[in-house]
Write a structure and sequence with these properties.
The chain has about 170 residues and is mainly alpha-helical. It is about 70% helix and about 0% strand. The protein has one domain.
Length: about 170
């Protein structure tokens, strides 16, 4: 990791952030065919071909998200991230750190449980779903805090991930 705190996120960090966000929205939209296909797989039944196609898309996108998260973690380790906005209390910084770390754990857990289930090694679909609920909750907290900081505290938080907002 670099010895100084960067002033801004690198373009790759920003691009990966938004790729993961859009990917998660798509994953949520196409999760039902994956559930049906996996249920059929573990019951020894033939899944509907349409479900199989969307399940393959879900699996591929999930793998891409997993790889993007690994790259984001490497970039975070290698180059660091900007410090918190001026005026952030130590409690707010602690909560932000916990939410970010929990989000990374959930994203990794989603990828691992999804791959294990999809490969037929073990049916971790229930755990995958529980992690999904935790992840969506954390995403809502993360997005809510970003919006609060941007529009109430007016500290430029969103400009860190949306360069067009920079003054």
């Amino acid at each position: 990791m670099t010895s100084s705190t960067p002033q801004a996120y690198r373009p790759a960090q920003i691009a990966l952030h938004w790729f993961v966000m859009v990917g998660i929205v798509v994953q949520i939209a196409i999760h039902e065919p994956m559930v049906r296909e996996t249920t059929a797989q573990f019951a020894g039944l033939a899944p509907d071909p349409a479900d199989t196609t969307l399940a393959m898309m879900h699996g591929l996108l999930g793998t891409l998200i997993f790889v993007a998260v690994l790259v984001r973690l490497w970039l975070r380790y290698r180059y660091g991230v900007p410090g918190h906005a001026e005026g952030t209390t130590s409690a707010q910084a602690l909560i932000a750190g916990l939410v970010h770390n929990a989000l990374y754990l959930c994203l990794l857990g989603m990828g691992i449980t999804g791959m294990v289930t999809r490969s037929g090694v073990a049916n971790l679909g229930d755990l995958h779903f529980v992690i999904n609920i935790a992840m969506v909750t954390l995403i809502l907290l993360h997005a809510g805090a970003a919006l609060f900081n941007q529009f109430v505290r007016k500290d430029g938080t969103l400009a860190r991930m949306i360069p067009a907002l920079r003054r």
